[in-house]
Hints:
The chain is mostly helical. Among the domains are: about 80 residues; about 40 residues, no CATH class. About 60% of the residues lie in helices and about 0% in strands. The protein has a two-stranded antiparallel ribbon with strand order 1-2. Strand 1 and strand 2 form a beta hairpin. Helix 4 runs antiparallel to helix 5 and helix 5 packs across helix 6. The longest helix is centred in the middle third of the chain and has 38 residues. It is elongated. It starts with a helix and ends with a helix.
Amino acid sequence: MSDLKKGLFYSPDDGAGDGAAGEGERQQDNQEGEGLQWETWHKALPEAEQKLIADRESGLKTALKAERDARGEAEKSLRDVAAELETGSDAQKKILELADAEAAANLKADFYEAAHEKDVSNLKLAYVVAQQDGLIDKRGKIDFDTLKLNYPELFIKKFVPPGGAGDGVGAKLPGNKVDMNALIRAKAGRI
């Protein structure tokens, strides 16, 4: 029976999983009342890992800014070409439609970025509602206060259940929770 137990069963009391316990504890130390949060998780990382993430994030932001600038230039160029065409011609109408579509895409991208920072839970629905209610002005400024007042359900934070990567490998859960394994061990006299 002992050979079978050693080969098939996992028991944190036998020392299994000790290598992952440190990681699980680190994950759980980073949890707040509602679950794992970016700020606390990121601050708990070693300096080298924080710098790696910051460098990657900076590169992505630079690429995003370059893409936005290019889209803005494309819209401006289309409007310049449309101004040179005969007023009211089909070609001018089509080019202005392209410029309007480019402007709408830029506005939508800007809205999604700002809405994400405001903890909007459903970006697509929030964008539709903001457009319908006229909460986006011509310059692209979004009235999130009115949006939140009229549609608070769009701002509900998603619940992240407590738990970490170490759960199930010997890491201790926060609090005095009793799990099935603890009950079985107690009945077997292993605790």
